[in-house]
């Protein structure tokens, strides 16, 4: 993963209206463009989830009782940071509109 967290720092986390013509300019088809964005969003979500779980595992304490709850300020800050990140679909849409995503077909004839 190419440090997604640094790329999205200035990105608006709220949903915005987008120009359809700008979205379809590369593919010529809105469904194809949305499919590309959707697949990239899934990749981003999986990467962020793995990264968050790996960071939180460092704080994991094995305990046999459910009643014991340990709060760690660092763990809470890490969780809040990931909660404040924009939705993966917003990130993927921005990447697509910036031209950072390139999609290729294995066999283009199958789709024509």
Describe the fold and architecture:
- With 112 residues, the chain is mostly helical.
- The protein has one domain (20-104).
- It contains five helices and no strands.
- The chain has helices spanning 4-7, 20-24, 30-57, 73-84, 88-98.
- Helix 3 (30-57) packs antiparallel against helix 4 and helix 3 packs across helix 5 (88-98).
- The longest helix has 28 residues, at 30-57.
- It is elongated, with a radius of gyration of 19 Å.
- The mean pLDDT is 80.
Give the arrangement of secondary structure elements.
Layout: H1 4-7, H2 20-24, H3 30-57, H4 73-84, H5 88-98
Helix pairs in contact: 3-4, 3-5
Order of helices and strands: HHHHH
Number of domains: 1
Give the number of DSSP strands.
0
Number of helices: 5
User: Quick one: overall form?
Assistant: elongated
* Radius of gyration over all CA atoms, rounded: 19 Å
Q: What portion of the residues fall into strands of 2 or more residues?
A: under 5%
> Cα distance, first to last residue?
33 Å
Largest sheet: none
Helix content: 40-55%
Features:
112 residues; mainly alpha
Short structural summary:
This protein is mainly alpha-helical and 112 residues long.
């Amino acid at each position: 993963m190419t440090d997604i967290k640094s790329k999205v720092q200035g990105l608006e986390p709220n949903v915005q209206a987008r120009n359809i013509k700008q979205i379809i300019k590369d593919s010529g088809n809105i469904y194809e463009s949305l499919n590309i964005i959707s697949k990239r969003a899934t990749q981003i979500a999986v990467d962020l989830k793995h990264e968050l779980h790996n960071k939180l595992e460092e704080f994991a304490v094995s305990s046999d009782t459910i009643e014991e709850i340990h709060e760690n300020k660092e763990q809470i800050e890490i969780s809040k940071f990931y909660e404040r990140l924009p939705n993966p679909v917003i990130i993927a849409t921005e990447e697509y509109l910036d031209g950072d995503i390139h999609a290729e077909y294995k066999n283009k004839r199958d789709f024509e």
